[in-house]
Amino acid sequence: MSDISIPGVSSKYKTDELISKLVEAEKIPLTRLEDTKKTYESQKEAWRELSVLTSKVRESAKTLYSFENPFQEKKATSSDESILTATATREAEKGSYSIKVKKIATADRFLSDSIDKDSEIPKGNYVFKVGEEEIKFSFSGGKIKDFVDRINSRGKDLVRASLIQQTPDSLVLLIESKKTGKSNKLLFDGDAKKLAVDLGIIKPVPNNSYNFDAKADNIQAWESKLSDTAYQIAENSLIINPQTELKLPINPSINITDSMVMELTINIEEIPEDNNTPSPPPGPDLPETEGVTLDDVTVEGAPADIPLPSWTPPPPPPRVDDNQIFFLLRNNKATPLPAITKGPFPKKITISLSEYMSSIDGIGIRNKNTHKKIEVSDIRIYDPAVRGDYVAKNPISSADDAEIILDGIRMIRESNTIDDAIPGTTLDLIDASDKTVKLKIEPDKEAIKDAIISFVGSYNRLMADLNILTQDNEDIIAELTYFSDDEKDKAKENLGMFRGDSTLTQLKSKLQDIMINPYPTRDNTLKLLVQLGISSNASKPGTGGYDRTKLRGYLEINEEKLDQALTGDILAIKDMFGNDTDGDLVVDNGIAFKTEELLKAHASTGGIYDIRIKTLDTRIARTEKDIEDYKEHLEDYEASLKRKYGMMEGALGALEKNSKAIDNFSNSLNNK
C-alpha cells in the first residue's frame, strides 16, 4: 500500500503542474477572443487613419474652390525693398506702378543736454501733447529714472522716454512721439515745458515765419515796371503772366534758422503758340486827282498810281523757356532758388533755406517764359522744428509727413504705412530715395502652385493607403520611397486588411475618374488636369507598355509645365478646380469640388468611416464583455480543479495513513 501513488495529485506528485496545464488548455477560447479584439482594434485604427487622410484631401480640395481660394490671392513685388515693400489683398487689381518715395514720415525725437546721472526731477504736473491727444500726470519728485518710468507707464501710444548713458557720470534724456506726421508734433505743457527748457530739450525762439496772403497790397514791382496785366489773383492763388516779374515783400525781415523751409504749390500752364502769319499793313491813303473843266467840258482826273514797296512779315518773337522762377531777396540782392524742371503739375515743393541766405525781406517771382502761365499758392516760410514759441534744441528728427509720387501723382500721408493709395494694397515706406521703384501686383502664383501641390500630395497619400488596405502585394509598400521605416512597418501590418471591401475599391475608382475627366472652363482649350502637367503618366515612352506603379492611381506633377500653365489664364485654371456653371454664385463643378463632394460621404460625421468605426466599437465592447466573462469562468474552473484535487490529496493522505497502519500491524504479527 505504501507504493500507491497518483501522479500529479499533490505537490509531491506535481498536482500544481497538472492544474496549470488544464487551465492553459481551457484558455484557448480566451486567446481567440483577445486576438479578435486586437483585430478589431487594428481595423478601427486603420479606419481612423484613413479618415484623417481623407479629411486632409477634403481640406486641400476645399482650399482650391472655396471663397478663399488661392486663385484670388495677389502678390505685390517691389523692385527695391530697401525703399518700399507692399502687401496686396485679394481685392487688389493686377497692374504695375511707378513710385518714388520723396520723404518718409517721421516723428518728433528730441534729446536733452547732458544731465548728471543723479539728477532729481521736481514735483509737478506734467503734460505732453501729440497732435490732438495728450497725457498728463502728477510726479511727486525723485530720480530721473523714476520720472522716465512714469512717462513710459502713462505714455500709451503717444510718448516714450529713455535714458542714454553719455559718460560714466552723465546721461542724455530722449523724448519721442510714437506717432509720425506733421499733425502729430510733440508739445510740452504745464511743468513739462519748464523742465524741457531746463534740461535743454527745447529753447525759446521769436516768431519768425511768413504766410502769403494773395492781395494786391502784398505785391510789388521788382526790377521792372509792374503793369495791371502782369498778374491775376484767384482764390488765394497768384497767376503770373508770361514775361512778367514781381516781388512779395516780407516785413519785418526773417532771420533764417538751420531748419527753416519755404513751402508752396506751383502749377505751370502751357499757352498755345499762335502760328498765324500777320496780314500786311495797309498802304497810305492817297488823295484823288481833281478833274479840269473848260468851256463846259470836264476831264476827270486819273487815279493815283504810286508803286508801294513789298512787305516782309516780321519774324515771330523768339521762344523763351526758363525754369528759374523763385528768388530770395535781401536789400535788392537776389539769390536764385532751385529751378523748377519737372512736373507733374500742380505740385507742392519744399525748399530748405539755410544754405542760401541768413535773412530775407522778400520773395522774387520771375516768369521769362513766352508761352507759360505760372500759378503759385500756399506760400509759407516757417521752421518745422518750432513748437509754439519754442524750438527743439537737439532734434534727432522732426514730425513730418511721408511724400510719394505714384504714377506722377503726388501724395502726402502722415504714416509710412499707406493703404489708400492703391486699392487693395498697403505700401510700407522704408527709406526716401531719388530712385523710382517699380511695384508689380499680380496673382500669387506661388500660393496657387503650393495649394495644387498640397492637393496632389494629400491625394497620393490617401491613394497609397487605399492600395495598402485593399491589396496584399508588398511591392506597393516598396514603391513608396517616401515612407519612413516606421511607416513601412505599419503598412505591412495593414497590408490587405480590407481586401475585397467594395466601398474602398469603388472610392479609389471614383477618385481616379475625377482626376481624368474634362471640366468646363472659361477657356475652351483648357479642360484636363494633364494640361497643367498633372497626370498618372503610366505609359512608358518607347516601350508601348505601362509602369505598373503608375497604374495604382497616383498623380505626378511636371513643375515646368505647371509653371508655364500658371503664366496663362489663372481664372480658367480656377474653373478647372471649382466652377459655378449655372450662375447661382455657388460652385457646382470642378476637380476639387467633385473630390470634396465624394469624400464628404466617407469622412464626415455620420459618414461611412464613422459608421465603420462605431460598428467596431460595438464589436470591441462585446468582445471585451466576452473576455471578462470567460476570465471569470477560468477563475471558477481553476478553483474547481484545486478543490477537486485537494479532496483527492486528502483521500490519498488517508489511504497512505491506513496503509502505514496496516503495515505496522502486519510487522507486529510477524515479530510474534
UniProtKB/TrEMBL annotation:
InterPro entries: FliD, FliD_C, FliD_N. The keyword Repressor does not apply. Pfam families: FliD_C, FliD_N. Residues 399-655 form the Flagellar hook-associated protein 2 C-terminal domain. Residues 271-291 are annotated as: Disordered. Residues 11-108 form the Flagellar hook-associated protein 2 N-terminal domain. It is found in: Bacterial flagellum; Periplasm; Periplasmic flagellum. Residues 613-640 form a coiled coil. Its main location: other. The keyword Coiled coil applies. Keywords: Bacterial flagellum, Cell projection, Cilium, Coiled coil, Flagellum, Periplasm. Signal peptide: none annotated. It comes from the Bacteria. Homopentamer. Belongs to the FliD family. Required for morphogenesis and for the elongation of the flagellar filament by facilitating polymerization of the flagellin monomers at the tip of growing filament. Forms a capping structure, which prevents flagellin subunits (transported through the central channel of the flagellum) from leaking out without polymerization at the distal end. This is Flagellar hook-associated protein 2. It comes from Rarispira pelagica.
